[in-house]
Automatic annotation (TrEMBL):
Residues 1-20 form the signal peptide. InterPro entries: Bac_surfAg_D15. The keyword Zinc does not apply. This is BamA/TamA family outer membrane protein. Pfam families: Omp85. Residues 228-426 form the Bacterial surface antigen (D15) domain. The keyword Signal applies. It comes from Psychromonas aquatilis. Its main location: membrane. It is found in: Membrane. Keywords: Membrane, Signal.
Length: 441
């Protein structure tokens, strides 16, 4: 069985929850002057595309402002052979890069505005890019046509930057105070018995916001467009009605997003997309040896009105007019959706996705001794999950033909007030393992 192992903690799109609620956390197991926590985690990983790599990640929680979380990482790998285009010659290069995430900063002039930013600058000697990532595309590495090979193996950069502005509306739980105060005992909330599952927009927290985004993804062997660039703006509405957004045990949350690239600057082309994400959590009866048992459900869909699948960007090219980049819009595959498949394995005009996870936290925690442990690991969580997904060029009755499935298992821990997870998933194209921050939903 072939495993595609990705230590993707440097992919900081996942350091922010999909529903980015704002709240304060008070750890009742720590004194008032030790509420801020930090964690340094060295890591080593190996992949076909990056070779052997080593790096470290620094996680800071509660510094500067109590609700803030900051993550920084850097990594470097061994030298690998690169693959240039038909007229080029091979060379050697190593993967190098770094990334950061700063979330939840509240400027002094507003009690309800929060600013977050994340970005990455990295070079990869042998990326796997699904330029034509439709649901029916085949993995074919034998063709000599670098515009049609799937996946395309090429060296290049993956650089991106996001700047997020979130405004907490004076509704529900945040009517009088923007930030709810959540008290934790050994990582589980103790003051939230009456929270989770209330009336929409009357209880819970509601956020409106906007995000500026920029991505430059170079693919030196892709003749049609050696660099895929996008920049634009997102508008979103979020509503969280759960008991504890980091690890919900009951309630629901949803997010509606509109993303637009106007084609300005170095953008490859203009595009737009619509997304809707719904999450639901059901508390299950505990067994004698568990602290928490939860059934977590997720449904997500995306659609790109601009995508014109009847015209191509260039004559006889693979890219279609006004299509979303492979990592935007209706894209499946990677650490959050369809985890058995490569990142951005499938992308098209429309997508549907569903997932179910059974999560349980046992009472046993061998690292609960805070005297010798430099950072708190408040619980370990074990998860069984199943996913189903499909991309297509339209919504219709035949949409579900060729639907993809996968199943998996996960071990997670709450370290420095942040969930860390190790997922392994199996699908029809093999299996993948991921190490990430935060729950997938």
């Amino acid at each position: 069985m072939k495993y595609r192992f990705i230590f993707a903690v440097y992919c900081f799109a996942a350091t922010l929850p999909s529903i980015a609620t704002e709240f304060n956390v008070e750890d009742l197991n720590r004194s008032e002057d030790k509420q801020n926590t930090w964690l340094v985690l060295p890591y080593v990983f190996s992949t076909d595309g990056m070779g052997l790599n080593a790096g470290a990640v620094l996680l800071l929680d509660g510094y500067i402002q109590p609700q803030m979380t900051m993550v920084f990482t850097a990594f470097a790998g061994e030298e690998l052979d690169t693959q240039y285009g038909p007229n080029g010659s091979p060379d050697k290069a190593r993967s190098t890069g770094g990334a950061y995430s700063i979330s939840g900063y509240r400027p002094p002039f507003s009690d309800r505005l929060f600013i977050s930013s994340l970005g990455s600058y990295a070079y990869y000697p042998n990326q796997r890019l699904y330029i034509d990532g439709s649901n029916d595309s085949k993995q074919n590495l034998d063709t000599s046509d670098t515009n049609s090979v799937s996946p395309l193996h090429t060296q290049g950069y993956n650089n991106w930057f996001n700047l997020n502005f979130s405004y907490v509306l004076p509704w529900g739980e945040s009517k009088h105070k923007a930030l709810p105060n959540i008290q934790l005992s050994r990582g589980l909330p103790v003051n939230r018995d009456d929270m989770g599952g209330g009336e929409v927009f009357t209880t819970g927290q509601t956020i409106v916001g906007t995000e500026l985004f920029y991505t430059r993804w170079t693919a030196d062997r892709f003749i049609e467009s050696p660099a895929l660039n996008t920049n634009g703006i997102r508008f979103f509405l979020e509503h969280d009605n759960t008991d504890y957004p980091h690890t919900p045990s009951r309630g629901y949350a949803f997010q509606a997003t509109v993303s637009i690239d106007f084609g300005f600057g170095n953008s490859t082309q203009s595009w737009n997309s619509l997304e809707f994400d719904y999450q639901h959590y059901l508390a299950l009866p505990n067994l004698s040896w568990t602290r928490q048992s939860v059934l977590a459900l997720n449904a997500w869909t995306a659609y790109s009105p601009s995508w014109d699948n009847h015209r191509t960007l260039t004559p006889d090219g693979v890219l279609q007019k006004h299509q979303t980049p492979m990592w935007e819009g209706a894209s499946l595959g990677g650490w959050d959706r369809m985890r058995a498949y490569d990142s951005n394995r499938f992308n098209d005009k429309a997508a549907l996705y569903g997932a179910a996870e059974y999560r349980f936290i046992p009472k046993l925690n061998p690292m609960a001794d805070q005297q010798w442990n430099p950072f708190p690991i408040d619980w370990f969580q074990f998860v069984f999950f199943a996913e189903v997904g499909r991309v297509s060029d339209r919504y219709n009755l035949s949409f579900f033909k060729g639907t993809k499935y996968d199943v998996g298992f996960s071990v997670r821990a709450l370290a420095a007030k942040t969930p860390v997870r190790f997922d392994i998933a199996w699908g029809e194209e093999g299996s993948s393992m991921w190490v990430m921050l935060n729950q997938p939903f």
